[in-house]
Design brief:
Bound molecules: ligand EPZ
Structural class: alpha/beta
Radius of gyration: 21 Å
Distance between the termini: 6 Å
Length: about 425
């Protein structure tokens, strides 16, 4: 199994090119199931989750190619509606095939994604919304067995909680339904917005894009004609590199970012004393002369993203004072804390609140990655730590960061991928 070896306490410099967003690419790949024409998707990150979903589409009978960040997917030949356990367990966002498969074929069997390190990750909101659209849902032997014999009907749906993939699933289901669907309390993440824009360019009729209320006029089963797509930049990858510069007090520039999507993250870094210059598609960060502690509450977009919580916790170990981090979306998203403690951090946990006492001198250690963003927090801590850190189980990182060691090496980090 691979691990990363990082020699810390080195400054970074130069420019890093941000890849396409994993969490935009996944719903865009799933929505190819709604298209009667082959779909070409550019700027797809070359990460494990994308390859897993492409494999799933191929297992359903689709034709797909993926090279140099460009995928071409043709789902006309899809002849199966079963998303099986051995793929779904590797990548829970496979649940994004549920809405499109059910809408297009009137039935499907999708393995329950199960939980993960950060929480139980239920899909009750996805299922309840589909039932409101006339679907018959049964859970059998770990699978969601969904049927809509008379096809899906438009409905007025109010999400009890804001759910990103839940919103994406139901938007895709509503596209082919009979009649109008209204969605309230729908997610407004940039990845959801891009999905809606792409669907409309393909012939869908979605109103209210970017707001928390959508109105979708279903096509009654008529498939879309999706056109060439270019995935938006990954705001979480970008935020992670900003934190890499911040934790090593370095001056770096990010290219290929949509800085509009990083307002909450940039605002926190600015508050901590970092000097940030934002242009439309690039961001420069310069060191802070006095790293101030910060209070963070994770909320849905455009608030501070939960996917940046672990990275900021690593950064807060270097702040001159006490920071308080309140994780409000997931019940177990503090798996990185015990590993940071091994490196010398001083963090106290109480339920969903972490109190980070800084500054602390971090020292290199053997640490274990547990989930995608926790792993990136360990990389950040290793960059700042004195001495050598080995990060094990980095398959978690490979799910969502394209060429992390290559990009960090280009910025001057001493980082190697080795096998144990
Ligand atoms: C998406 O996950 C992202 N994944 C996650 O990113 C991200 O952390 C999360 O949204 C929140 O922003 C993708 O887009 C592929 P949710 P998702 O449904 O859709 C509860 C990463 O690091 N909930 O918005 O699964 C749920 O338990 C990943 O890239 C229900 O109760 O998250 C959570 O508390 C990690 N019932 C809250 O809603 C449901 O049916 C938000 O979850 C669905 C969700």
């Amino acid at each position: 199994m691979d691990y990363l070896e990082i020699e810390g306490s080195k400054k970074l410099n130069g420019t890093v090119i941000i890849s396409g967003a994993k969490n935009a690419a996944l719903p865009l790949l799933a929505c190819t199931l709604l298209s009667k024409t082959p779909v070409c998707i550019n700027n797809i990150p070359n990460v494990a989750d994308v390859k897993t979903l492409l494999q799933l589409l191929e297992n359903l009978g689709a034709k797909q190619t993926f090279e140099s960040n460009r995928a071409v997917v043709n789902t006309i030949s899809v002849n199966s509606t079963c998303a099986n356990y051995d793929i779904v367990r590797k990548m829970r966002a496979s649940i994004l095939t549920l809405g499109p498969l059910l809408a297009r074929f009137g039935h499907c069997e999708v393995s329950l994604p199960g939980g993960c390190a950060i929480g139980q990750r239920p899909i009750d909101l996805h299922l309840r919304a589909l039932e409101q659209m006339g679907a018959i849902i049964e859970i059998k032997q770990g699978y969601v067995i969904a049927k809509a014999p008379k096809s899906l009907e438009g409905a007025n749906i109010i999400f009890d909680k804001i759910t990103v993939t839940g919103s994406e699933n139901i938007i895709m289901a509503a596209i082919l339904a009979n009649g109008v669907t209204t969605l309230s309390n729908v997610a407004k993440e940039p990845e959801v917005v891009q999905l809606c824009e792409v669907l409309n360019e393909g012939g869908a009729k979605i109103k209210g894009i970017g707001s928390d209320e959508l109105e979708i006029e279903g096509s009654g089963g008529e498939l879309l004609k999706l056109d060439d797509i270019t995935v938006i930049p990954d705001r979480i990858e970008a935020g992670t590199y900003l934190c890499a510069a911040a934790i090593t007090n370095s001056d770096i520039t990010l290219k290929n970012v949509t800085s509009e999507h990083l307002k909450a993250v940039v605002s926190k870094l600015t508050y901590m004393g970092y000097v940030i210059e934002r242009n439309e598609n690039s961001i420069n960060i310069k060191p802070s002369s006095n790293i101030l502690p910060i209070d963070i509450k994770t909320v849905e977009y455009p608030g501070f993203p939960t996917d940046m919580q672990a990275q900021f916790m690593a950064l807060c170990t270097q702040a001159n004072g006490t920071s308080v981090i309140d994780e409000r979306l997931f019940e177990n998203r503090f798996m990185h804390v015990s590993e940071l403690l091994r490196m010398g951090a001083d963090i106290k946990l109480s339920s969903h609140i972490a109190t980070v006492y800084g500054p602390t001198k971090l020292t290199g250690a053997d640490v274990m990655a547990t989930d995608l963003r926790a792993s990136s927090a360990l990389v950040l801590a290793a960059l700042a730590a004195k001495g050598k850190t080995r990060i094990h189980r980095i398959y978690h990182l490979d799910r969502g960061y394209e060429d992390l060691e290559g990009k960090l090496s280009m910025l001057g980090a001493s980082i190697k991928r080795l096998s144990e």
